[in-house]
Amino acid sequence: MAAEALTATEYIKHHMAHLASAHQGSVVDFSIVNYDTIFFSVLMLAVMFFLLRAGAKKATSGVPGKMQCAVEMLVEMVNNQAKNIVHGDRTFVAPLALTVFCWVALMNSIDLIPVDLFPAIAGLIGLDHLRPLPTADLNGPLGMSLGVLLLLFYYGVKVKGLGGFVHELFTAPFGSHPALWPFNFLLNIIEYLAKFVSLGMRLFGNMYAGELLFFLLALLGGFALELSSIGTVSAGIGQVFAGLVWWLFHVLIVLLQAFIFMMLTLVYIGQAHSSH
């Protein structure tokens, strides 16, 4: 009954609220934990490991099945991209790229599930709010971006040595003259920060917009109930048609954003292997 009384604005606000440790009163508050983001992120990671492990266990040297073909094509695609971008030891980089692509794709795919399903289930067990899409929570994409940033520092030191890495921070790209050191250092720090922010914000922005549009399409069905019989039919048909079209298009966005995140991760790690 409370859900039926919600206005359009209240409906969207309710669905965009997280199951969190406390209400967030400011833009940045590191003391708050979004439990739903953590839960669904870990859940999708476990699903990914289960699927890949199942594909590996069923692998045979004979005629491959559909699952084996799909996994082999995916692994070959990721390995080829890693080989073309990262010129160095790819023992860890290629599996990392595969993990990133599969994990982000599975997290994004939660957005293809009807928007009212998980909040309704949460209501049955006494939870007021539940937002299941981890990549539409800025904390999720920025957390993954932070992991990529730490890998950039790791590979920068591993490939060039600590002295070479620090030397490059202060001497590239303008030159090694001492007067240029502050400018070189500032520019490199800005470059690292830009990679960190843009990598996370790109994924977050696309998934946030897609999620919001699904909310608006869901509201169209509720709006149909307030119209006349002809208006109800028209709005209902419009919701089904628009929802189906956006759902099919969003499948492409789900995979494309996972691919872009993986490719940028490889590009940044590849840059860490090279010198200016």
From TrEMBL:
The keyword Ion transport applies. One of its GO terms (molecular function) is proton-transporting ATP synthase activity, rotational mechanism. One of its GO terms (cellular component) is proton-transporting ATP synthase complex. It is found in: Cell membrane; Membrane. Signal peptide: none annotated. Keywords: ATP synthesis, Cell membrane, CF(0), Hydrogen ion transport, Ion transport, Membrane, Transmembrane, Transmembrane helix, Transport. Pfam families: ATP-synt_A. Belongs to the ATPase A chain family. This is ATP synthase subunit a.
